[in-house]
Design a protein that fits this description.
This protein is an alpha/beta fold. The strands form 2 sheets. The protein has an 8-stranded parallel β-barrel with strand order 1-2-3-4-5-6-7-10, surrounded by 4 helices.
Length: about 270
């Protein structure tokens, strides 16, 4: 198992945390990522036990900042969202997570620039809190079909928003591989990038999400990873596999195969 691969439990999101943790020894990975909304007090206890028993490390926690109300919903809504992020930082500290990556919440009736500033202002206290704890806060690029949950859909917009908010970036290759000037965008993103998410896309798949095991599709992963590594990236590569193709193969088998395929690719790149 390549030491820079992490497996995101979103691969098994439809199963309870007990079953998710039971998969860890079967995958051969040493680093894992968790879905924040699943981490109630009992789940945190179970994760702590699993981390200790297997000498695993927690890479990141997925956190939707404002998953129900848009960014123009008002001060009380933003206060609740900020409190939720602060609580998630507390969980991250307990579990020794390296980072938290977020979606922002939808823009509502705001222009993009207005929504970006509202988000930046809302999370500012948590940015300081995360820095004191040594936990990286990030936003990811997500497809526009998630506009009810997020405002950053291209990698360029994601980096711009991260610069405004003073936080990091999680690069999801599935969401940006078709963009123009991608090499330049990746080079701009890498200095504030703390995680790269890897999956593939098979041409003709129309469902969302439509992810595939690395190597099964058309995304030029080797070239993109080479650009990222050449730009100086030294962090982990997170597998996030969801969608009908993964459902048909079986989540455990698809993830196990993805761990192997990505490891082979990284070795081929000299990592």
């Amino acid at each position: 198992m390549h030491g820079r691969i992490s497996v995101n439990n979103i691969c098994f999101m439809d199963e309870d945390i007990v079953r998710q943790l039971a998969y860890w020894p079967e995958l051969g990975a040493r680093r894992f990522s968790l879905v924040g909304p699943q981490l109630d007090a009992e789940a945190v206890r179970l994760v702590q036990e699993a981390l200790a028993a297997g000498a695993y490390a927690l890479e990141t926690i997925v956190h939707p900042f404002s998953p129900v109300e848009p960014l123009d919903a008002g001060a009380r809504s933003l206060d609740r969202a900020r409190a939720g992020l602060s609580a998630q930082l507390g969980v991250a500290k307990r579990l020794h997570a390296q980072s938290i990556y977020m979606t922002t919440g939808g823009r509502g009736g705001l222009a993009w620039e207005q929504a970006a500033q509202v988000f930046a202002d809302a999370i500012a206290p948590c940015v300081s809190e995360a820095a004191e704890a040594g936990i990286a806060l990030m936003i990811e690029n997500a497809p526009p079909q998630y506009a009810d949950l997020h405002i950053a859909h291209s990698l360029r917009d994601t980096v711009k928003l991260a610069e405004i908010a003073g936080i990091g970036v999680c690069i999801d290759l599935f969401g940006c591989w078709t963009e123009a000037d991608l090499k330049a965008s990746l080079a701009r993103a890498v200095p504030r990038c703390h995680l790269v998410q890897v999956s593939d896309y098979v041409l003709g798949d129309r469902s969302l999400p439509a992810r595939a095991v690395p190597g099964d599709g058309a995304i030029p992963l080797k070239r993109m990873l080479e650009w990222i590594l050449d730009a100086g990236y030294t962090g982990s590569f997170d597998l996030e596999l969801i969608g009908p193709r993964i459902d048909r193969e079986g989540h455990l088998e698809a993830t196990r195969r993805a761990v192997h395929e990505l490891g082979e690719l990284l070795v081929a790149l000299g990592v």
